[in-house]
């Protein structure tokens, strides 16, 4: 076929459909689309043509000279007929190509953002300067490193200041870890992993095996099949268990499209066997294929896109059905941009994540130009989820491409990378608000800090105002659990209409499927799915929400059961990006349950995707809880006792006494403690943290306006300080009108502002440095007394004022029902996070903590855990500030469940129980009777406290003089005794601290020498 005269530098996109005739014994053929012209002959696309159906071929080429071009199809087997149809040759100018690339980048990698600046009265602030500092880009872009980084500070500084993703050049490969059979050495890889983890850099695992025999350990090439199978089994178990949970991907069998060493030795299913094993060992690290020449050029028919997809089908046909990623190495000489784009289009049809894993460019005169062209082309493609460059530095040069010289000064390629990093991070980006206080722009997806300045207003920095946009939702948790069709990839299968509404399956422009409920006639009308739920099973519920237009919508996730309606989660659905909801429920009777979504405005269309309902038995739930406590609150400890000669001392007795626990666990007190020795003895023998029930609150310290009395509070502070007990400051102001001093509600706004300012000044100045937290505006999510009188930014104003008086003490919000009552949408986790954003938007940029009161009836453990997960996304300290349980026959059991659940969560940094004693009874829950004898609730607290302090723990050293155990973090005195010692015993102090997650299999080691 003559394509006619084509100009130089024209970009050609090529497409066709191909089929082969039926020939006995021949099912398919590899077909190349070939162009012939003044440039010679070039293969521009590939397909696997089959008999009986049509297959698409897609490719491209940039012409470097003008002239006539002939197009033809090529297949090696001349016995078949080759059929072609719907052939397309589409030319693009360089300008058109770059324009399409730019459009795709805007659509795929960025989102439109609108920021409004307002003054302290909530009025729009025009001509304010909005500066954006990106904290993390959502698109992974990294570079390989070599072992030379370990001993080269300049290399470390250059690398860690730029990248958050990496892969090791050779240090994790089999031929490095086991040069001599049976002698494994991971020291270098371990050190590199510790280094990058210290800088929060994520790592791809490269690789478990390499299917090229030249890149196997030299000794492995000559093993028998049985010996190789045994050695390979040891290898995959060794390396993957060693780095379990520390890597984001594993290249399991490297380059197994080009090479087949393992298949030749162990059978055609060898790769599938090892992918199954990899997924079994570490289900969180995605197993990847990884090969070269798939997108680099069309010359290599072995690994062209069609062959790559065939390898994926081969893996599936041999029994691997788990998660899978497509790794494309990207070792380029000169890029063929239309071939890259067409190849990525073909590979994206597999619906798997694609990473460019080893990007480099041959050292030619245009190296830096080609590098930039390639990065921009692959970054613009929606199928590509990450890019890793292959430019690890070595003193003798890099593999094919360096980014710096040996003094770590950028080369031209390094300048390209820095320029792109700055562009993607919006480095130095700022803008001016319009007359409505609005600044609108388009940002790359990620987390940002926003700084707003105005020449006529107080300048403030919002240190945690994060702009988060997800163009597409993440995959459903637990693969959807028991949800039918969780990703909506099967139309409306499993989903039905509830009430009067229309539901439909919609596909976004980039191929994401989701469900839409529209034409809704009421709040609950929309979509639903029915489940069979079982009694006493914990169900974790999650998914993603969006609305079609308008303001944010509070969406409730509800289950209609035989016993009524149970709220499981809340989400704030936005227009233009997807928001996650997470929650949970436990039902009190087995039976059918209908999941549905409810929001007040029926005019809003609800979009839902990636829905998950995952059941956990009580045994599984408790097991996860115990595992979390071991991981989060405890560390393994190995104590060795030796004699004066340094020899191990077996059968020595070690008694451990905890001096102070690292995890704050306390109980509220009130003024009754001041004159009651029994109360004091009971409390101070148990707790090192407290909060005052009422004595620091405004209605207690200023009963009459202007008459401030801190005498009771002072006495309680002095008593606690004398006993070494830390105090939470609760509260400066309370946003509920019912809990103001009696004289406050009748004040005018001006009078209230003055009185509240004096209150903040008085109490904060008096107790500055004597409390560990301040609850500044108590319960300001449920209530708005000060906002209704003083304006929408009242809370932010008093947080700023408190911070001005006390810059060192963390300031907390404090609210109820966030984790206690799923039905209370006012203070749901989503609305709590929204309140934090309002505080930041109102101008408070200082320290902030999350206080969750924890007044429970019957606990919903799945909702508690999911609520804490959601709150933890704010990355702020979380305290459970007022734990109690409503009186009922299971009060003690419920208290035990609640405490264990919150202590097990890694984001929770302290727990205070709300059970201050009164002779007339406690608020809702007492721990003792009036003689300070424990009630069942007190026994629960004592049991937990004793467990966390290891009270009475004694151990004996083994034959090597070691005693090994797992201890809660804190300070301990170890008393060591042995019959052979001159003195009957001696003691050592030790501190048990958290171990880095990467080292959690290690132990803290101590050696004590007996006199």
TrEMBL record:
Q: Does the keyword section mention Hydrolase? A: yes
The annotated active site, in chain numbering, is 358
Name any Gene Ontology BP term: xylan catabolic process
Which UniProt keywords are present, listed alphabetically?
Answer: Carbohydrate metabolism, Glycosidase, Hydrolase, Polysaccharide degradation
Q: Which domain of life is it from?
A: Eukaryota
| A Pfam match | Glyco_hydro_10
Any single GO molecular-function term of the entry would be:
endo-1,4-beta-xylanase activity
Domain GH10: start-end pairs: 126-420, 650-944
PANTHER family, per database record: ENDO-1,4-BETA-XYLANASE C-RELATED, GLYCOSYL HYDROLASE
The record's similarity note reads:
Belongs to the glycosyl hydrolase 10 (cellulase F) family.
Its name, as the record gives it, is GH10 domain-containing protein
Originating organism: Capsicum annuum (Capsicum pepper)
């Amino acid at each position: 076929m003559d394509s006619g005269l084509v100009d130089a530098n024209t970009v050609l996109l090529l497409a066709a459909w191909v089929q082969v005739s039926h020939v006995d014994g021949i099912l398919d053929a590899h077909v190349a689309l070939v162009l012939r012209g003044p440039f010679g002959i070039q293969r521009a696309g590939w397909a696997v043509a089959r008999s009986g159906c049509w297959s698409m071929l897609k490719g491209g080429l940039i012409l470097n000279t003008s002239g006539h071009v002939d197009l033809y199809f090529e297949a090696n087997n001349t016995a078949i007929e080759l059929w072609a149809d719907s052939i397309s040759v589409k030319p693009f100018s360089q300008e058109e190509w770059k324009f399409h690339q730019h459009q795709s980048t805007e659509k795929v990698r960025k989102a439109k953002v609108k920021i409004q600046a307002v003054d302290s009265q909530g009025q729009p602030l025009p001509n304010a300067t909005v500066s954006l500092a990106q904290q993390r880009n959502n698109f992974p872009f990294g570079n390989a490193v070599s072992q030379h980084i370990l001993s080269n500070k300049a290399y470390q500084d250059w690398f860690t200041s730029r990248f958050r993703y990496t892969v090791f050049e050779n240090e994790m490969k089999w031929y490095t870890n086991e040069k001599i059979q049976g002698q494994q050495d991971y020291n270098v890889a371990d050190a590199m992993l510790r280094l990058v983890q210290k800088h929060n850099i994520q790592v791809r695992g490269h690789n478990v095996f390499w299917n090229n025999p030249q890149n196997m350990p030299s000794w492995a090439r000559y093993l028998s099949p049985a010996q190789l199978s045994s050695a390979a089994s040891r290898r995959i178990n060794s390396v993957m268990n060693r780095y379990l949970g520390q890597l984001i991907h594993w290249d399991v069998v490297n380059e197994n499209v080009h090479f087949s060493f393992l298949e030749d030795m162990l059978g055609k299913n060898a790769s599938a066997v090892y992918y199954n094993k990899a997924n079994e060992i570490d289900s969180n690290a995605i197993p990847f294929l990884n090969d070269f020449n798939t997108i680099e050029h069309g010359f290599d028919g072995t690994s062209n896109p069609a062959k790559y997809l065939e390898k994926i089908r081969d893996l599936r046909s041999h029994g691997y059905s788990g998660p899978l990623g497509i790794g494309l190495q990207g070792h380029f000489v000169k890029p063929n941009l239309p071939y890259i784009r067409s190849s990525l289009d073909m590979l994206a049809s597999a619906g798997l994540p694609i990473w460019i894993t080893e990007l480099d460019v041959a050292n030619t005169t245009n190296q830096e130009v080609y590098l930039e062209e390639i990065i921009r082309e692959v970054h613009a493609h929606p199928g590509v989820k990450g890019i890793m460059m292959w430019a690890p530095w070595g003193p003798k040069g890099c593999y094919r491409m360096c980014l710096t010289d040996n003094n770590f000064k950028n080369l031209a390629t390094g300048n390209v990378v820095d320029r792109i990093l700055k562009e993607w991070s919006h480095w130095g980006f700022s803008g001016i608000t319009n007359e409505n206080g609005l600044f609108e722009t388009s940002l790359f997806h990620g987390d940002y800090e926003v700084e707003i300045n105005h020449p006529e207003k107080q300048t403030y920095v919002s240190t945690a105002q994060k702009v988060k946009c997800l163009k597409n939702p993440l995959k459903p948790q637990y693969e959807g659990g028991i949800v039918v069709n969780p990703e909506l990839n099967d139309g409306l299968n499993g989903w039905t209409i509830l009430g009067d509404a229309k539901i439909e399956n919609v596909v976004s422009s980039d191929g994401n499927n989701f469900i839409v409920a529209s034409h809704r006639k009421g709040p609950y009308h929309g979509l639903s799915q029915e489940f069979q739920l079982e009694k006493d099973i914990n169900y974790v519920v999650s998914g993603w929400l969006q609305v079609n237009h308008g303001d944010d919508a509070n969406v409730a996730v509800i289950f209609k059961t035989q016993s009524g309606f149970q709220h499981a989660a809340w989400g704030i659905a936005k227009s233009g990006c997807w928001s996650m909801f997470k929650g949970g429920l436990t039902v009190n009777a087995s039976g059918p349950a209908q999941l549905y979504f409810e929001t007040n405005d029926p005019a809003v269309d609800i979009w839902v995707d990636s829905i998950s309902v995952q059941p956990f038995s009580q045994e599984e739930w408790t097991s996860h809880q115990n595992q979390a406590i071991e991981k989060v609150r405890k560390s393994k400890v190995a104590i060795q006792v030796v004699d004066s000669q340094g020899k191990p001392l077996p059968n020595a007795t070690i008694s451990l006494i905890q001096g102070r626990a690292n995890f704050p666990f306390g109980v509220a007190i009130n003024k009754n403690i001041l004159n009651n020795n029994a109360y004091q003895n009971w409390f101070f023998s148990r707790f090192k943290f407290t909060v005052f029930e009422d004595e620091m609150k405004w209605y207690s310290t200023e009963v009459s306006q202007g008459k401030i009395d801190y005498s009771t509070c002072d006495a309680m502070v002095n008593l606690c300080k004398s006993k070494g007990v830390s105090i939470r400051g609760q509260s400066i102001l309370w946003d509920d009108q019912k809990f103001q001093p009696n004289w406050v509600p009748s004040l005018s706004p001006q009078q209230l502002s003055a009185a509240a300012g004096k209150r903040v000044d008085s109490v904060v100045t008096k107790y500055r440095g004597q409390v560990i937290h301040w609850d500044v505006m108590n319960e300001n999510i449920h209530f708005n007394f000060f906002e209704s009188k003083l304006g929408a930014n009242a809370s932010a104003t008093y947080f700023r004022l408190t911070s001005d008086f006390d810059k060192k003490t963390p300031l907390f919000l404090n609210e109820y029902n966030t984790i206690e009552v799923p039905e209370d949408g006012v203070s749901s986790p989503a609305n709590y996070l929204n309140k934090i954003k309002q505080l930041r938007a109102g101008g408070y940029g200082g320290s902030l903590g999350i206080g969750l009161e924890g007044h429970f009836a019957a606990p919903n453990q799945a909702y508690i855990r999911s609520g804490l997960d959601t709150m933890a996304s704010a990355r702020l300290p979380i305290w459970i500030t007022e734990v109690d349980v409503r009186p009922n026959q299971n009060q003690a059991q419920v208290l035990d469940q609640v405490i264990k659940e919150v202590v097990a969560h890694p984001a929770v940094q302290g727990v205070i129980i709300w059970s201050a004693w009164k002779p007339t009874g406690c608020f809702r829950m007492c721990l003792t009777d009036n003689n300070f004898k424990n009630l069942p609730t007190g026994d629960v607290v004592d049991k937990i406290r004793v467990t966390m302090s290891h009270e009475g723990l004694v151990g004996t050293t083994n034959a090597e003089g070691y005693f090994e155990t797992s201890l809660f973090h804190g300070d301990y005195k170890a008393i060591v005794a042995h019959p052979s010692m001159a003195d009957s015993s001696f003691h050592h102090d030790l501190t048990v601290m958290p171990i880095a997650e990467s080292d959690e299999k290690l132990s803290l080691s101590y050696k004590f020498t007996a006199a």
